[in-house]
From TrEMBL:
Gene3D superfamilies on file: 3.40.190.80, Fructose-1,6-Bisphosphatase, subunit A, domain 1
UniProt binding sites for Mg(2+): 67, 83, 85-86, 207
Protein family according to the UniProt entry: Belongs to the inositol monophosphatase superfamily.
Pathway where this protein functions: Amino-acid biosynthesis; L-histidine biosynthesis; L-histidine from 5-phospho-alpha-D-ribose 1-diphosphate: step 8/9
CDD domains xrefs: Bacterial_IMPase_like_1
Assigned EC number: 3.1.3.15
InterPro entries: His_9_proposed, Inositol_monoP_metal-BS, Inositol_monoP_superfamily, Inositol_monophosphatase-like
Keyword field: Amino-acid biosynthesis, Histidine biosynthesis, Hydrolase, Magnesium, Metal-binding
Name of protein: Histidinol-phosphatase
Alphabetical list of PANTHER family matching this protein: 3'(2'),5'-BISPHOSPHATE NUCLEOTIDASE, PHOSPHATASE
Principal EC category: hydrolase
Amino acid sequence: MPTLDALAIANELADAAQRHSLPHFRTAIDVITKADDSPVTMADRAAEAAMREVLARRVPGHGILGEEHGRERLDADHVWVLDPIDGTKSFITGSPLWGTLIALVHQGRVALGMVDMPVLGERWVGRPGLGASRNGEAVRASGCTALAQARIFTTSPDMFSAGQWQAFDTLSRRCALRRFGGDCYSYAQLAGGTADLVVEAGLQPYDYMALVGLVEAAGGVITDWEGKPLTLASAGHVAAAATAALHRQALEVLATAA
């Protein structure tokens, strides 16, 4: 990868987003329903606009894929994938489990993934091959290799179709415990070793590309439900696990149940 202070840029992007999102948390804000029926706030849009201003100044030739303001130059060698407020429903209901997601994709591969949790004061960074950290301290996924000992997370049953829910329900009932409602923070928990599996469906690239960088850098495995690498063109069915053995068992159950 060409010399590029990607981490410094990512930190600047997260700082810019936080300045526009955090002051609006737990305040009276206007909620807009998008065409896909997902809620968006003015804080989302202002935060992403601020992030794009940073990129225009720092790396004007890079591509951008953002949730709120579309795509630019996706054929560039470097593409930044931005979600200013992942977990908008958490944001508008006063839950602290929303975050800013930032990924740098270099020639199709994730070079950096960041999950910034403004309310919690936690910034998770993953650079595959260089490790993962929380606020500068190294983290690593657990060594869990068996479903019976696994802690499995997903954001909501509502994200699954009927068949997908059956698959998740079958899988999760073979695990030690299951939890709901984490949004992007579930993947940070996996990277930090306090969760072992995260299975979701219907995500967009700005929802999962940063998570690819973080989970892989922490020693975990993250793919689609068929075991294929997640890319900008993936369908958005995500299965993340602490170990390859656990990941393989999860995919076997998902395939059987589906």
